[in-house]
């Protein structure tokens, strides 16, 4: 059994095309029905504004599977600590023996989540998308842009966050990456000219409404991954020409389909794995409005853990 710490894992795995392909292959396997994936085990720790999720999946035929433990404690930045932490256990799919512990402190979750956003944009946004609006200014908001640049030639970023100083610091970091960055005081202003909108917040109330959406925009919602969270108003979902999620069950329980409170959903729900596996083209024209709700799946964790361990063993 091998134990790897974050420094070694970061040295082996980054947000690049190879990692993107690995996570995309995991989505495709899910879409083809080749994945055993149980529901998320999730526990809230309300007094500390925290939560812990446990996710896992097995891709049939794969040598290994992963079990990921992911704490999120959202007051940690005030203490000078990261909001995400955790580790991944990699086990043999033949014997069940633990082959490796990836003590990544949440790094691989950040990477695979960012890559999932890029995969959604690759399949759903306009190919000539160059301007992205980001709601949120945390680590994932930054990684989302980094991953998007693998699939779209971005040049302009508009950012809104609840705390203006946080948005300004975020803007400075992204300007250093060669992007033009505008900081906005309201969501509508940030989204007005966007080709792609990414929501990456722990919000418990909707931030984005249909009135904020320009024609033909693609929206990827990343933040709602538990029953208490919401980023999109129901009007965003009903206005969309195509609504996609990673899994419908997770979107209904943890994601944006909670807007319908268990009632009938008044539109067709697509799943990203099938979009990838079948090459579905849901964007029919430049004016098509697409929305993707990503709650985070165990197959993403198994895909990135297998990729990471392969890199570590070969390095």
Can you give a write-up of this model?
This protein is α/β, with parallel strands linked by helices and 315 residues long. Helix content is 33%, strand content 24%. It contains ten helices and 15 strands. The chain has an eight-stranded parallel β-sheet with strand order 10-9-8-11-12-15-13-14. Strand 3 and strand 4 (50-59) form a beta hairpin. Helix 2 (17-31) packs across helix 9 (272-278). The model has no long low-confidence stretch (mean pLDDT 95).
End-to-end Cα distance, whole Å, is 17 Å
- How much strand content do the residues show? 15-25%
Please provide the count of β strands: 15
What are the segments in which pLDDT stays under 50 over at least 5 consecutive residues?
A: none
Cα gyration radius (Å): 18 Å
**Widest sheet: strand ordering:** 10-9-8-11-12-15-13-14
The number of helical elements comes to 10
Query: SSE order, as H and E?
Result: EHHEEEEEEHEHEHEHEEHEHEHEH
Largest sheet report: 8 strands, parallel
Helical/strand content category: alpha/beta
Please, what is the average pLDDT? 95
User: Which term fits the overall shape?
Assistant: globular
Helix share of residues? Answer: 25-40%
InterPro entries: NAD(P)-bd_dom_sf, ODC_Mu_crystall, ODC_N
Protein name: Cyclodeaminase
Give the arrangement of secondary structure elements:
Elements: E1 2-5, H1 6-12, H2 17-31, E2 35-36, E3 41-45, E4 50-59, E5 64-73, E6 87-92, E7 98-103, H3 107-124, E8 131-135, H4 139-148, E9 156-160, H5 164-175, E10 180-183, H6 187-191, E11 196-199, E12 218-221, H7 234-239, E13 242-245, H8 248-253, E14 269-271, H9 272-278, E15 290-293, H10 298-314
Helix pairs in contact: 2-3, 2-9, 2-10, 3-4, 3-10
Pfam family, one: OCD_Mu_crystall
Organism: Halomonas rhizosphaerae
Protein name: Cyclodeaminase
